[in-house]
Write a structure and sequence with these properties.
It is built from 4 helices and 6 strands, in the order E-E-E-H-E-E-E-H-H-H. With about 170 residues, the protein is an alpha+beta fold. The protein has a 6-stranded mixed beta sheet.
């Protein structure tokens, strides 16, 4: 299920985790995005996604298990509320967020985990206990990955991004 196939909870008024990204728009469309200050760019609160494949990808990026890039795209809301959402490569209309990720990686990890827990809460409120439990387990696993990364046991810290064939040196 993709972001387009379900309605983002933030569009229905629920509180949802956001992260600050500097964005430049031209003719009401997204042109550039950056983690750091950029000419003619304004800081906007960008929503985190609410679907598993995108949250999993962001979690792997945040803990150093993936070197993929982060993108941002229009959520497709009404004109006065043109909200943006983080996404991964390949999403329609996505623009790559430029700049080093290191200064925001801790915030990205925390907000991604918070989004996972919010999805679990949405499932729990809807009476879907098993799905809520699965989302809480994913959030727990991410917390463990964050702690391991802080101890220097991430893929990037161990092998500079190269495959280690299961060994940690």
């Amino acid at each position: 299920m993709t972001q387009d196939e379900i309605r983002h909870p933030a569009l229905t008024g629920e509180s949802w985790p956001v992260i600050g990204v500097r964005v430049r728009r031209e003719d009401r469309s997204l042109r550039t995005a950056s983690w750091r200050p950029a000419p003619h760019a304004e800081l906007e609160d960008v929503l985190l996604p609410c679907v598993w494949p995108e949250l999993e990808g962001l979690a792997e990026i945040a803990v150093g298990l993936s070197r993929a890039r982060v993108y941002v795209r229009d959520l497709g809301g009404a004109e006065p509320d043109r909200r943006l959402v983080l996404c991964l490569r390949g999403a329609p209309g996505a623009v790559r967020v430029e700049g080093p990720l290191a200064p925001v990686v801790e915030v990205l990890a925390a907000r991604t985990r918070t989004a996972m827990l919010r999805v679990a809460a949405v499932h729990r409120e809807a009476g879907r206990g098993q799905e809520a439990q699965a989302w809480r387990a994913r959030a727990r696993r991410m917390l463990k990955d964050v702690r391991a990364a802080r101890r220097g046991r991430s893929v990037r810290a161990t092998s500079a991004g190269l495959p280690t064939l299961g060994r940690r040196s």
